[in-house]
Amino acid sequence: MKATARFAWLVLPEPQRSAFLEEVRPGVSTEAFGRIGAMTEALPEILALLERGDLSLDQLRKIAFGSPTEKTATVCPPEKPAPKPPKSRRKGHGRRAAKAYTGAQRNKVPHPTLKAGDVCPSCMKGKLRLQRDPATAIRLQGQPPVTATVYEMEVLRCQLCGKTFTPSPPKEAGTQKYDPSVGVVVGLMRYGSGMPFYRLAQWQASLGVPLAASTQWELVDAVARVVEPVADHLAFLAAQSSTLFNDDTTMRVSELRRQIKAEENPDRTGIFTTGLVASAQEHPIALYFTGRQQAGENLNDVLQKRQEGLPLPLQMCDGLARNEPKQFETILGCCLVHGRRAFVDVATNFPAECRHVLESLRAVYRFEAQAMAEGLKPRERLTFHQANSQPVMDDLKTWLRNQRDEKRVEPNSGLGQAIGYMLGHWDPLTLFLRQPGAPLDNNVCERALKMSIMHRKNSLSYKTERGAKVGDLFMSLIQTSRLNRVNPFDYFMAMVRHPAQVLADPQHWLPWNYEDHLPADTG
Q1: What is this structure's pTM?
Q2: Residue 32 — left, alpha, or beta (φ > 0 → left; ψ -120 to 50 → alpha)?
Q3: Are 292 and 271 in contact (CB under 8 A)?
Q4: 314 with 328: CB under 8 angstroms?
Q5: DSSP 440
Q6: How many CB atoms within 10 Å of residue 87?
Q7: Fewer beta carbons below 10 Å: N end or C end of the chain?
Q8: Mean pLDDT in each 10-residue stretch from start to end of the chain (523 residues)?
């Protein structure tokens, strides 16, 4: 293929492409470098598909814009579409109630002329009673992410002796230029929302409050050193969990890339960020690990902290062998969504066959939703799935085998490979039909990894291993806070204001219990 030959350098091994990016970085602007990085990431995938000759317009659309949805009705629309219902206002669309603003400052406004116990001015008979739910008015205001206050203190100078007299700075000026909140805000924006240091520096400069990228790094690194003991304790708690979800995604770390390039025959050239989701006493925990280790190796390191005598943990991941720990045994389950997605990808070419698979799995997920709505316990949920989902999965397995054994599908086609994956991983894919509490999929971990992927797309890479470590610490605590419905800003601020207590007792500074251990003077 001539087009492929022209861009043959793009299908070189990833380390060589990364070396090219490092070579061109000094000569272009940050924005231009971001565009070049995005192109070098997308084009090899497109060219590989072109070489195989199975690149469809739908696949090209997904590569360029992402997949908007994988719902069965969208992937395999019915031959006779049902009439569209009349348009109605979407549920949840519109203004948010005052109770949704949990982080807002709240001011009580008394009635200017009346109070509880007064005689009603309307009927002049009854007495007024204070209602539990107040009327509300909401006012939102914008401001720069980081603001500054300059205290200008008078300087008086003697005309005769030349001595000067300057008042001490006011108490509110503090003793340091940067309040701890600055490092917290910068860290939350960088690692929680994908705002690179250089972009925030440009924004702050345009708003008249300059904040250099190098200064931002120093501030977030200081915050990371305070919260690191808490992240370590979360890893210990995760190791005791009965169910562990893990997966990984590629990452870029310039320092590690240089190390790999300097090695004569590196055993591994990839760099990864592993996402691991677990729970401790019904409290979800999310952890991130970036480096040359793969998901199974990072899980192995976590399980080394597991206490002896505990039953084998359930592990949920996709079908890749690199996700399994080598030194510890787990009860392995494979993600049903990964098996389903293989059929979604080829639904355009095999609509009837894929519709059959997707509708079968849709029935299973509807049973799962019903079990969740009824609040079934693990044993009850297992019995429920065995009664309802087992027949559906048995019929699906028979259908898949018939497609393969009766040569109804070409084994090397997209559909044949999807069927082969499903049958080859059938036991771990259907663990939920045999093991109490076994999940159906790894969606909770994939959602957690989106934070790391967003960082990779916006910031492109970490410069150093320490930078990657800081990113992992922030992401772990931010995502764990979100999973537990805790305000991450309030949580980080509590820790940076009490660093000695955090170091001494990290188990008291978890997102779900830190408020119970705040010193009395801070509430």
Answers
A1: 0.82
A2: alpha
A3: yes
A4: no
A5: S
A6: 6
A7: C
A8: 51 66 75 72 66 61 64 70 65 71 85 90 89 87 88 90 90 90 96 93 94 96 97 97 95 93 89 94 94 95 94 93 92 94 90 93 96 94 96 96 92 92 95 95 94 89 94 97 96 96 96 91 56
